[in-house]
Amino acid sequence: MNSATVTTTCAYCGVGCGVKMQPHSEGFAASGDGVHPANLGRLCVKGSALGETLDLDGRLLHPEINRQPVSWSQALDAVAQGLQAIIRDHGPQAMAFYGSGQLLTEDYYVANKLMKGFIGAGNMDTNSRLCMASAVVGYKRAFGADAVPCSYRDLELADCVILTGSNTAWAHPVVYQRLVQAKKARPEMRIIVIDPRQTATCDIADLHLPLRPGSDAALFCGALNAMAEHDLLDRDFLTRHTQGSDETLAAAGDWTEEHTAAVCGLPLAQLRTFYQMIADSDRLVTLYSMGINQSSSGVDKCNAIINLHLATGKVGRKGCGPFSITGQPNAMGGREVGGLANQLASHMGFTLEEIDRLGRFWKSDNVTKSAGLNAVELFHAIEAGQIKAVWIMGTNPLVSLPDADRVRAGLARCPLVIVSDVMRDTDTTQAAHISLPALAWGEKNGTVTNSERCISRQRAFLPAPGEAKPDWWILSQVAQRLGFGEAFAYQHPAEIFREHAALSGFENNGSRAFDISGLAQLTDRQWDELRPVQWPVNAANPQGRERLFTDGRFFHPDGKARLIAITPRLPRNQPSAVYPLIMNTGRIRDQWHTMTRTGKSARLMQHISEPFCQFHPADAPDINDGDLVRVSSTHGWLLLRARPDNLQPRGSVFVPMHWNSQFSQQARVDALVEAHTDPLSGQPESKHMPVSLRRWATAWQGELFMRGSHLKPPATAYWSRIAQPAVSHYLMADSSAPKDWLAWLNEYAATGEWICQSAHLGDNGFNLLAWADGELQLAFYAHRDRTTVDRQAVVAAFSQPPQTASQRLALLSGTAGKGKASAGATICSCFAVGELTIADAVRQGCTSVQQLGAQLKCGTNCGSCIPELKKILAEQIALNSGMS
Fold it and tell me: What pTM value is reported for the model?
């Protein structure tokens, strides 16, 4: 273990925060890097909890074939021989790689080079297809290059910031907090949130537009038309620096105020306020994310946004620009090296000139001549038997891809499934024939690129566990066995980075936006010490560049940007009598993707502990808060906890994307989603699936706590697992109750070996504590309805057993005991502050978020809980006023 503080980059979202990992007696503590330009020392709760996710529990530590350990030589030989046989019998198009924004740029580069440059097939795609492929195509259509023009600092310099398709407060908390501070410093700054839901991000909004789901393109076409009608276009910029304005403005002319308001489901007065805020702003940034991109018309939505910026000249200037913010730590790095199937490395495409250039640089005459299959097509080809071998790296497509059960069935029929991962048991590794142990964050060494084009170092501060290896090493070893040894003789990731940087400048001469050739001569030490820098980094920009297009020159051959005429269209899937509601999927505050890392942290599981379904109470009046609900679509069904909410729009259902088969019995949301994709980007529609809701009748609901971390899931129709320190904790429910609770428990957990203390509650349920040598081994609570157990008190009892009979009786009833108040549901995860503790502080005299922070520390770190603190304050103050 490294004994010095190591500066690295966060493992989670595309903000790309700098992190300092400080060693201490029990491991490592994470804190923000005060000089990193992305976060300036601030971390969200997920980043702050990174040190809590470094254990080896559940890790894949040795190569396996058919779930049996083998040596690296055996595993690598099996991979190479399997791929060679597929290529020999079916050709290179019968194999595919599927990567991830969790890969480092160096890993990504080697994978892309091997598949597209030497195997000679284009079938290398990535899970970034699911989050930002539409943004890529939108930028390329408009600017001639996949080039994000803005920096985070532009958000702070803008007169107005539009947040659309993004619950920034929860999905990108550090960027959100930068906005909070900017608005405090400049109260005249205007923030507009466009979202069907009223989310935590609305807390700082001057205007919230709860538009009809899927109508975003119509809204921005209407805004463009309004600017044209009021003579607010930058005609000089349009003439000198763009093409396509006449056609685009003519198409937008159909979107009058009245027509736009009707299609978007917005009051006319609210729409006019939106237009006026844009008109009053000399500097405008539009920050957009998954709610825009994850659509069957996502590219058009992106270009509708970009059109508005081009037409008003609000691009290439301080505080201006269309800003796509990515979901993964290296989604941008994957774009740079050609991780998407429709790209080659260094932002090159498939023209004969580009193929020839790449072949000469790599010294390969086998560069693929055409784009490969994108993610959804790729897994459909596996199902159809066209793809015979797939290598999946660092991602979990059986959870994250649409129509996920169909993906599972297809993968089960694939002759050769290779998975490189850090965890042994994911939905996807369980389908693998060959499993290869990869290094995890904190163990691997390389670079990532964040949403503002900033390249940062991820540094190792932990030793490689077991036999885990870097992804680039694994790929290079296979490449050597395939006969490509000279091109893959890498000994250090810095070598790969230098080659990547050199390629970016090879025969470039300003024709390609991506150019980091200024870093191609870094020594290993200089690469190791590399500080964050925004590309391009070349002779003309030796220190990098904060924003692009400041000279009005773009990357189309004529140097002009393109406005794209947009015909807005609503999603193909619309409600019906059978499926009357529209399901929207997304992130929650404290979890990340499919929970491989965040699911390890007990702290991150306390705010929202189980998968849920949020809907307006009037849409399902027979379903109460806390009920279990069956959510069904044409593709499957889920069992989730009901959370009716008046802030949820009528006709809409929100379900989080994170839960997988290791954390819940039936909560993989993408199993419900149909695989509709944007025809230009191949990005799936993940925000608009018709569903129905039905209350699921339960005979009992319960909670089980058991010492140890490897308890198998219970054999119940519903279960959900909550991470706890050294304790397995399951929520569970079923439609029928055991006749003998003790016998049922003993069969499941061998309680007969322990001293048991039980309480029979008649028809209402059964509680039991099991002890051995004075230590609590198991606690079980089953009631007719949802249990109300003080979970913190129960978990604490496993490490500090109650000493008196009254304390044990209190524990048997699921409470902390006399004189020990429950903290309630966690609101502030950074400092583990519960709802009841906050309410009590308000009763004792706290009247503001600042006072709560001073007394309890809640809201003083990442700030993500502040909207909830405000809500509790308002409710408690109103309650106190009513009582007085």
Answer: 0.95
